[in-house]
Each structure stands twice: as structure tokens, then as C-alpha cells.
Amino acid sequence: MTKSDVEQLEERLRQAMLASDVDELDRLLSDRLMFVTPDGAMLGKEGDLGAHRSGMIRVSALTPRERHIELFGMTAVVNVEMEMVGSFAGAPFAGRFRYTRVWHHDGAQMKVVAGHVCAIK
């Protein structure tokens, strides 16, 4: 695994989020996903997929500004600042957000096992 491999996975994830492509998100997210939202709630994989499937979350722009990737054997930690525009539960939002994601190779492929997002003030 190289940083380039992780950058390609991050781009696949970004495109899937923009399109609410639940099938691609399903391939990229671990069944054991732990994701913390800006309000401190924790979602698993089904919660994340359900938010996209139902339209609760809609992302119309997701532009990376800076990205840092650290490799630890078969695990990668990514920290990325994003400009994001969309809606959540019908309420529009826009701003800068910082994501931290942990990608882990489960023996078959790399998947996101943990993540966190917060607004940048």
C-alpha cells in the first residue's frame, strides 16, 4: 500500500459521497465502521449508508484543500480539510470541515474502519 493507493481510495470515497452512491460506499466502508459526526453522534456503516440512501444527507460540493496521509503497515490515517456544500435533514449547510479517516486492509481490500468530521470555525 502506498500513499498514492490511499489517495485513489479517498477520491473514490469523495465521488461516492457526492453521488450518494450507496453501492460504492458499501464497498469502501467496513462493516465495523465507527464514524463520529459533527454533533458527536456515532454512526455505524448502516447508519451512514441509510443517511445517503434516504436523502437525509446530500452533498453537492466536496473539495479537498489539504490532505495528510500517514501509513502504518496495512493501516492509513488520513486527515483532510474539505470545502463542503449540501444539506442535512433538509437544512442547507456550507463551510470548511476536517475529516480524519482510518483505512485498514482487512485481508481482501482497504476499507474505512473509523472516521470523524468537525466544522472548522
Protein model, in words:
The protein contains three helices and six strands, in the order ααββαββββ. It starts with a helix and ends with a strand. It has a six-stranded mixed sheet with strand order 2-1-6-5-4-3. The chain has one domain (3-119): Nuclear Transport Factor 2, Chain: A. The protein has 121 residues and is α+β, with helices and mostly antiparallel strands. The protein is globular, with a radius of gyration of 13 Å.
> What Rg is obtained from the alpha carbons, in whole angstroms?
13 Å
Kindly report the CATH topology: Nuclear Transport Factor 2, Chain: A
| Range of strand content | over 45%
What distance separates the N and C termini?
A: 34 Å
Number of helices: 3
Structural class: alpha+beta
Query: What general form does the structure show?
Result: globular
The low-confidence runs, each spanning 5 or more residues with pLDDT under 50, are none
CATH architectural type: Roll
| Estimated helix fraction | 25-40%
What is the CATH class? Alpha Beta
Order of helices and strands: HHEEHEEEE
Average of per-residue pLDDT values = 95
Question: Got a strand count?
Answer: 6
Strand order of the largest sheet: 2-1-6-5-4-3
Largest sheet descriptor: 6 strands, mixed
